[in-house]
Amino acid sequence: MDAPQHLLLGALLFLLPAALLLVCARGKRLRLPPGPPSLPLLGSVVWLTNSPAEIEPLLRRLFDRHGPVVALRVGARLSVFVADRRLAHAALVERSAALADRPRLASVRLLGENDNTITRASYGPVWRLLRRNLVAETLQPSRVRLFAPARAWVRRVLVDKLEEPGPDAAPPRVVETFQYAMFCLLVLMCFGERLDEPAVRAIAAAQRESLIYLSRNMTVFAFIPAVTKHLFRARLDKARALRRRIKELYLPLINARREYRKRGGEPKKETTFEHSYVDTLLDIKLHEDGDRPLTNDEIILLCSEFLNAGTDTTSTGLQWIMAELVKNPKIQEKLYDEIKAATNDDKEEVSEEDVHKMPYLKAVILEGLRKHPPGHFVLPHKAAEDMEIGGYLIPKGTTVNFMVAEMGRDEREWKNPMEFSPERFLPGGDGEGVDVTGTKGIRMMPFGAGRRICAGLGMAMLHLEYFVANMVREFEWEEVPGEEVDFAEKNEFTTVMMKPLRPRLVPRRTQKSMSTH
């Protein structure tokens, strides 16, 4: 064998292993998650027979067919949905930075708004500034304690409203009372002013109408926005009108707070609180934009976000939990016994300090959030880079969402998941030591997980524990013949009871003790 042949043989022996490695690598190349076929412009063909506003039943069928990771195309955008808790933890917690971004909504651009809110901002300095401000200046425990008198006032409002007889003495639709009470509290925290009932109801109506309209009617703009913005112009006009109504209600309150601060906090009315969320927003400077202050429109959007996040989810959670207590009187009585043991009968309320001494109360709240999370999805995430979830390729820019309800009801993880059993969160139960932040592991994630976890987690748990404890202390909640509890679900902004709860409320406390209030 001459020299050229030796060289050729040596080259082949060197290149063959490299070639084999390349073939193997190509064979193992990650593929996109499975899902239905797609058409140009439309996206997945399932949109021909399914509405994006009612996506959950569709996804359940796809998970049954394809496994815990599925893909849908909405127009040109690839969206991936994950139903497995371990995959969620690997993606949201172990690789949190890769999914800390948000996709930009076409409807936001079409409405002429920017993304300078905590829920919508891209992962970066503006988001960090806005979130840090909310957490440190309003949701920090010492700040939350400042609003204890406000919560006590709202508790009285709630009890008084629940005691009011309905039309023809019909059982009340308690969710409407819950919504009003939560708006009373969050409006006060937001604007620093205890408003009268007509003002609160005007804000609540404007917020709720806008929220439900946007969640139901704006998904169409994800499909070819250059075309749909003309076809559905009336929807954009309606959305802008709803935004203008909110601005008309909020701007005088914001300006009143500006004036209050200019006067150094004086004179102070009995209804005025010394701290509010708006105060913190007026102090913000956007360093990335020349140290400019927030505009009025940006402050209004942040106030709307604050009210939406703290009212609709909490009132929805309260309705589901109280419905379970109506349907399960033995659980309700066990909770009442714990409340009586921890609270002095002479006290007007179950205090915030009292609820910290009630493990069964906390178990009831956790079980309610597990079985009935107000949001069945987290807010969507966006992949900041190519990544892998469950052995599939998630390309950079993909929208990724996680199935909150599916994880909390997974029969592989929970014993009898559709049974309401607070005992599962007590020592020895299958939910003992569960971490709702998802840091150690995800078994349920009603507040999301990772870097975009809900900033108001602590306040939400406090409000649920405080108001549930006080409602059970004041009333025995009974099922009414003809108004039996029905756990069928309906999707609004949150997942609510299709048939609202209408219980009979029997006062537990004697007239003598109640007259001392």
Brief overview, please?
The chain is an alpha+beta fold and 517 residues long.
Structural summary, described in words:
Its main location: membrane. The chain has helices spanning 3-27, 56-66, 85-94, 106-110, 125-137, 141-146, 148-163, 174-191, 197-217, 225-231, 233-262, 277-283, 296-327, 329-342, 352-355, 359-371, 404-408, 457-474, 511-515, and strands at residues 38-39, 43-44, 69-74, 77-82, 285-286, 292-293, 381-382, 387-389, 392-394, 399-402, 475-478, 489-491, 495-497, 504-507. It is of the alpha+beta class and 517 residues long. Strands 3-4-10-7 form a four-stranded mixed beta sheet. A two-stranded antiparallel sheet has the order 1-2. A hairpin with a 3-residue loop joins strand 1 (38-39) and strand 2 (43-44).
Level-1 CATH class name: Mainly Alpha
Distance between the termini: 108 Å
Task: Summarize the amount of helix as a percent range.
Answer: 40-55%
Biggest pleated-sheet summary: 4 strands, mixed
CATH topology: Cytochrome p450
Computed structural class: alpha+beta
Please report which band the strand proportion falls in: under 5%, 5-15%, 15-25%, 25-35%, 35-45% or over 45%: 5-15%
For the largest beta sheet, what order do the strands appear in spatially?
3-4-10-7
Coarse morphology: globular
- Count of helical segments? 19
* CATH superfamily membership: Cytochrome P450
Question: How many structurally independent domains?
Answer: 1
Q: How big is the Rg?
A: 26 Å
Membrane topology: Single-pass membrane protein
Keywords: Heme, Iron, Membrane, Metal-binding, Monooxygenase, Oxidoreductase, Transmembrane, Transmembrane helix
InterPro entries: Cyt_P450, Cyt_P450_CS, Cyt_P450_E_grp-I, Cyt_P450_sf, Plant_metabolite_P450s
Protein name: Cytochrome P450
